[in-house]
Write a structure and sequence with these properties.
Helices cover 38% and strands 21% of the residues. The chain is an alpha+beta fold. The strands form 4 sheets. The chain has a 3-stranded antiparallel sheet with strand order 7-8-9, with helices on one face. Strands 1-2 form a two-stranded antiparallel sheet. A two-stranded antiparallel sheet has the order 3-4. α4 (59-68) packs antiparallel against α5 (72-83). The radius of gyration is 16 Å and the shape is globular.
Length: 209
Amino acid sequence: EEAQPMPMASTTKIMTCILALEEAGGLEGAAKTVCAASAQAASQPQVKLGMQPGETFYLSDLLYSLMLESHNDTAVCIGETLAGSVEGFAEKMNEKAREIGCEDTYYITPNGLDASDREGIHHTTAEDLALVMRYCLALSPEAEDFVRVTSAPSYTFTDVQGSRSFSCSNHNAFLNMMEGALSGKTGYTADAGYCYVGALKRDDTLLIV
């Protein structure tokens, strides 16, 4: 059912990524934005980058960590940097979802880990997830940079000081499976099970699954 509300795990991160790109003014602006890891970010469960509290990173680098490896600590670090708190960033996510036209989507976290609060559980529908993906790829002013990040096969970066080096590989196997594959995001949690949203370009048609 395209309208059935369900938890969506790390497919959540497409919203985190596009919001970050828009707030920073694309990858160029993100390359000048410094993110500092809080204790809350560092304490997120696997899969994670392994940032230490107080460590600093450029936002542009963290977007690859977010989208290629799906790091949960990175998502929290980005949310806190851009909105001051996870709750503040979730508000921005929900606001953007309404702007995009999502009918039944509710974000609590920037990483998509299973969560609930007074309003309900962290969830979306297949239809809404497709709408968000379409926005990321075709309607956002930062769509081009979104594709650049999510289609990269791999990426290497350091923290701001250059003292630690990190390598990311893209876990979206779909990119190499079909001609015209453009972007996508995998996800898994206990409540959500295996999740996926992907897109490909055929002639001039954008297809989202």
